[in-house]
TrEMBL record:
InterPro entries: DUF3325. Keywords: Membrane, Transmembrane, Transmembrane helix. It comes from the Bacteria. The keyword Transmembrane helix applies. The chain crosses the membrane at residues 6-21, 41-62, 68-88. It comes from Pseudoalteromonas rubra. This is DUF3325 domain-containing protein. The lineage of its organism: Bacteria, Pseudomonadati, Pseudomonadota, Gammaproteobacteria, Alteromonadales.
Length: 98
């Protein structure tokens, strides 16, 4: 259960960071919609905060060495999943742009 929650936190964090880029935002939302500076920073800070939260949970539960390994392994799986989603089904992340 803990690994699943860490994966979900990482998925949301990296998805927010992906949507914070104008190129990905226009693919997910609409080409004519542009990011405001306030929303851009909100997405970046939220994504980074969620990724750090998952990192701290991994380190707290499994210790420094194993926690870092589990976090990097989980982050690799999540980023690969997001690459596939952004390539083939970018509209699945539309709910992040509202």
């Amino acid at each position: 259960m803990l690994i699943t929650s860490i994966l979900m936190i990482l998925l949301l964090g990296f998805a927010l960071l992906c949507v914070a880029m104008q190129r990905n935002f226009s693919r997910v939302a609409a080409p004519s919609v542009h990011l405001s500076k306030q929303r851009l920073w909100l997405l970046r800070i939220s994504g980074t905060g969620l990724n750090l939260l998952a990192l701290f949970v991994c380190i707290f539960v499994w210790g420094m060495s194993r926690g870092l390994v589990y976090w990097f392994g989980s982050a690799t799986m999540v980023v690969f999943t997001l690459v596939v989603i952004l390539t083939y089904r970018p509209r699945l992340l539309r709910w992040l742009c509202r």
